[in-house]
Amino acid sequence: MLPVLFGISIAVFAIVHLIPGDPADVLLGQNATDARVKILNKKLGIDRPLLVQYFAFIWDLLHGSLGTSFYNRESVTSLILGRLPETGMLLFGGVLLSILIALPLSILAASKRGAFRDQLVRAIPIVGLGMPQVWVGVMLILLLGLRFPLFPVSGFGETFPERIHSIFLPSLTIAILLSPILIRSLRASMLEILDSDYVLTARAKGISTARITRVHVLRNAIIASVTVLGINIAYLVGSMVVVERVFAISGTGSLMIDSIARRDYPIVQGVTLYFAFIVVLVSLITDLIHAALDPRVVMK
Amino acid sequence: MKSSKTLYVGVGLLSALVLAAIFAPLITSFDPNEPDYVNTLLGPTSQHWLGTDPLGRDVFTRLIYGARIDLAIGLLAVVLPFIIGVSLGLLTGWRGGKTDSIIMRVVDTFIAFPFYVLAIALVFIFGPGIKSIIIAITLVGWVAYCRIVRANVLVAKEQDYIHAARLTGLPSSRILRRHMLPNVISQSIVFAMSDIVLSILAIVSLGYLGLGVPVPTAEWGSMIQEGQGYISEQWWLATLPGLMVVYVGFSLSLIGDGLVARLER
């Protein structure tokens, strides 16, 4: 994990320093004179050698600082943390809903291989994986926000119930994008489980199908979904950035896109780093959950 | 038999759209990008089959011309990742040792970046446009091919035909090109089919965010974004471009499934 974190820090640092042009030029706009650009560059520390800048960046990072915004001089860390409730709820809601959609459908499909309902569920990934994230969002707005106005179509609300209400459509969007991936792997792993010796043994002992599904199949299927989610976390987090935009939620993704228009380097850098960290962290967590649920896995 | 059918249906569906995109000027006489302020936001008429958008441009025309952009860039964007990824995968699997561990660390790093976040950051660096999209997809996309090919090479390396080739004293480059490559590439080709869909999805998302193909060029993503503002009245403005993507995704996924079945025989 450490080499990956090191690689991430280099990549993120490189991203911002590859940018053509002078940030001071952009910041000062029409007021940019050579002398002013120089002063500002000194203030921002951009005139120092790259290696020095990199170590300064790492040093700050180890102290929990991602620098300050060029735009309004606020600390990038607190800006990101301020958007955490939106992003966190969206991530959690999306994962929860996608499991609620994918799990029953996969069980339904796998329980009768080749039947009509199996064919139907197998068609979901074929269509679902080709749906643009933004389009799914807009379609849900059209259906559940306007035609049947059950949910708010944008914003994030003030109180907790309001927030759950307004985060539902964005979460459902994420879930619709994620569940085809889940269904594909879950159906396969469930077929494998149903073919296994221990299920056969359970059947031979006369245990009912419902109980076998609950005790043996479901548990293993949940383990499988955790693994699949872990593998696709990068895709999931990336889709969130786009979906936030569709629903005008001011989460971390929106923070990043707004900062691009303002050419606010520290924020773009900070958010990129933050998302990469989330991915590494969630992969680690899914590994731990996997180990906790599956006694065969031994963590080294 | 059945797999061939899947493949042919997929190829047929996709070719229909590709042909329509190529011969767009013959199918429709409207200009996809020229505004016509007299005929804005029309419903479907005999002239404008799918109505017009807020700037009076023919929606059907823009959908067809949009296919040119989205299909071409989507296809183009996976060529480089394919070549780079397959080559590096061959190299890293074959050489092993230090080369392998360095390349795999780089791969691990790239995997940690959410694709859209990296793509957006890269578009930020190079400015919006087709060039940036292709650079972004290339930088992120090679990783998958590298991993797939490497895994296949590790298996193939220990097979008799490779041992035999080595024993005859053939140079590594020849073994890799003539013996290894044809045997390890099929999975990458199948993956490329779904990768084209992924890159089209990326172009659409970036277009929606205003970071993709610059307006007014007809492109499905920016069309969805423009249509969203009129969703309560002219719902089809945002709906149809998305359906085009679903159509492409569906046909490519049929092609992919057909290829899998064919290559496994």
Automatic annotation (TrEMBL), chain A:
ABC transmembrane type-1 domain span: 84-286
CDD domains to which the protein is assigned, alphabetical: TM_PBP2 (cd06261)
Gene Ontology BP annotations: transmembrane transport
Compartment(s) of residence: Cell membrane
Keywords: Cell membrane, Membrane, Transmembrane, Transmembrane helix, Transport
InterPro entries: BPD_transp_1_N, MetI-like, MetI-like_sf
Segments crossing the lipid bilayer: 6-29, 91-111, 123-144, 164-183, 217-236, 273-293
GO cellular component term of the entry, any: plasma membrane
Topology with respect to the bilayer: Multi-pass membrane protein
Protein name stated in the entry: Unannotated protein
Organism of derivation: freshwater metagenome
TrEMBL record, chain B:
Keyword Ribosomal protein: no
SUPFAM superfamilies named in the record: MetI-like
Keywords: Cell membrane, Membrane, Transmembrane, Transmembrane helix, Transport
Membrane-spanning intervals of the chain: 7-27, 71-94, 106-126, 132-149, 184-215, 235-255
Record localization: Cell membrane
Stored PROSITE patterns: ABC_TM1
GO CC terms, sorted: plasma membrane
UniProt topology in membrane: Multi-pass membrane protein
One GO term (biological process): transmembrane transport
Residues of the ABC transmembrane type-1 domain: 67-256
Name of protein: Unannotated protein
